[in-house]
Amino acid sequence: MFTGLILEKGKVLRINYTGRTIKLTCQASRQLLKDYQVGDSIAINGVCLTAVGKTDQQFTVDIMPETFQRTTFSRLNINDEVNLERALPYNGRLEGHLVTGHIDGVMRLREKKTQENALILTFNFPKEFQGEIISQGSIAINGVSLTITRVTARSFSISLIPHSRNQTNLGELMYGEYVNVETDVLGKYVKAQLGMSKRIEWKGLN
Fold first, then answer.
1. Could you please report the per-residue DSSP string of 26-92?
2. In whole angstroms, how far apart are CA 17 and each of 70, 74, 132, 191, 201?
3. 43: closest CA among 96, 100, 104, 98?
4. Are 22 and 15 in contact (CB under 8 A)?
5. Residue 155 three-state SS
6. Which of 7, 141, 160, 22 is CA-nearest to residue 84?
7. Of 2, 112, 143, 193, which residue is the least packed, with the fewest Cβ within 10 Å?
């Protein structure tokens, strides 16, 4: 489990492809990796992954075909900056929102504009996400915990303060670029329960 508060930006050093399987090596600070061990979890651009190798300033993870298909990892390049977050310890502080590291899908940047000290990013979302994306609700984009500021039928906006722009890779996004998105896990449970209730009611009428 994660909080969506990015600790630092890492850098992609090596990408080894075997079909749709990737062995990915990233650079990170000694501070981030100080007590990080093989077998521990880490979120890369919001995706929960497990270390299979580690040095003082590098770590390697395996990415399976399901993750390759569901995330932006198929578009990664050497030297790309990625958002890094260690897993939340049970005695840790929850300051963002509960983020599982299980990506629901990728979405595309539709608009990028500045409003005083804020950077407003607007993304398109497909129909199946309706009900999970609500104004003032939580969402994780490339692993960053954010509040949704505006929603239309097929798009939503978030607002980045200068700290979030500098601490994450969202400030460098280009028009049309894809990001990993995880909607609020609590909202998904509520949506599923409501859908189940409706199915039970419909069956009861027959």
1. EE--HHHHTT--TT-EEEETTEEEEEEEE-SSEEEEEE-HHHHHHSGGGG--TT-EEEEEEPPPTTS
2. 16, 10, 33, 37, 48
3. 100
4. yes
5. strand
6. 7
7. 193
pTM for the full predicted model: 0.90
Instruction: Report how far residue 204's alpha carbon sits from residue 206's, in angstroms, rounded to the nearest whole number.
Output: 5
- Per the structure block, which two tokens stand in for 154? 């097929």
Tens of pLDDT, residues 127-149: 989 889 999 999 999 999 999 99
Size (the chain), residues: 206
Whether the CB-CB separation of 67 and 142 falls below 8 Å is answered with no
Q: Which residues lie closer than 8 Å to 199 by C-beta, 6 or more apart? A: none
**10 phi and psi, to 5 degrees?**
-100, 180
Q: Which helix (H) or strand (E) holds 186?
A: helix 185-204
